[in-house]
Amino acid sequence: MSESIRIGWIGCGRMGTAMATRLVVAGNDVVVTNRTRAKAEVLGALGAQVVDSPRDLATCDVVFIMVAANADLIDVTLGAQGVLSHEEHAPRIVVDCSTVSSETSASVREACSSRGAAFLAAPVSGNPKVVGAGQLTLAVSGTREAFDEVRPYFDQLGQGVTYVGDGEVARLVKICHNMFLGIVTQAMAEITVLAESGGIKRSAFLEFINNSVMGSTFTRYKTPAFVNLDFKPTFTPVLLRKDFDLGMAAAKKMSVPMPVSALCTEIVVSAIGAGYVDEDFAVLLLEEARGAGLTMEPENIDVDDGLSGVK
Questions:
Q1: Which of 6, 42, 210, 226 could crosslink 215 through cysteines, CB 3.0-4.6 Å?
Q2: Which residues contact 243 (CB under 8 A, 6 or more apart)?
Q3: What structural domains does the chain harbor?
Q4: Torsion sign (Cα): 281, 162, 26, 12
């Protein structure tokens, strides 16, 4: 990688900060901005340059974006102080790691093209702890040439980056991924409640599952939440519902039957209606237990989440 490459970073929330930290610590020349400047100063203390607005990143070679919603992506790219608002300069490549709609992504891609900038859709799978453990995964779509140029930085962000094609296909990959998260979590909740209703400790049952052919990185990662009923949010039911809605809309458009996904969508809606809006989506376990008339108690034991010691 050339030392002259200047990387811009927009968005210093929990995920954005964790991801940008890896680029800064790797020794890259990183310039960061965030709507609330104080959040960006955390990266400034690590060696990044902090600027006031996305517009100030127009002279960067590659600009990464990690924001919360469609409107935020439009604002930081096409807004009055957006990265594409500079009259004379624009980044060579814009990389959006946010989870947004394909329509929003396509409009930003078109705007980038009009300024001579390549655009990569690069939604991610993980949370800040996963990022810190070096296990973030990314699905990327856009031109292969732009992907190949940014690939070294993707590799610094996590362990798995997959080029999935041109255009907006990475957005569909991410939506399908998140629907799968919801379906697996609901299935995990149901079998765990069944086991506990039969007198089996959750920790023992999930240890068996994790050591079997059905165990996975995800089931291990969610086991501490299930065992200790610790629902500190990594991904909320509200965000999960958004992705189910997007996925079901895509399925309808493409005439793909999704019976299990449709049922899980309604289960997530029910959980939100029960008041679970700020907790982690693993609270689907509590809704399943409520339906079974089972009162759960935390086991309060140390459980390995599979990420300990991984860098």
A1: 210
A2: 99, 174, 175, 178, 179, 182
A3: 6-167 (3.40.50.720), 175-291 (1.10.1040.10)
A4: negative
Residue 42 reports pLDDT greater than 50: yes
SS3 of 256-291: CCCHHHHHHHHHHHHHHHCCCCCCCHHHHHHHHHHH
Average pLDDT, the chain: 95
Residue 287, CA distances (Å) to 180, 187, 189, 273 in order = 19, 12, 9, 11
Q: How far is CA 207 from CA 49, 152, 201, in A?
A: 45, 37, 10
What amino acid occupies position 305?
D
User: 0.85 exceeded by the pTM?
Assistant: yes
DSSP code for 229: T
Contact, 43 vs 50, CB < 8 A? yes
Q: State how far the Cα of 210 lies from the Cα of 270, in Å rounded to an integer.
A: 28
Phi, psi for 29 (deg, rounded to 5): -85, 100
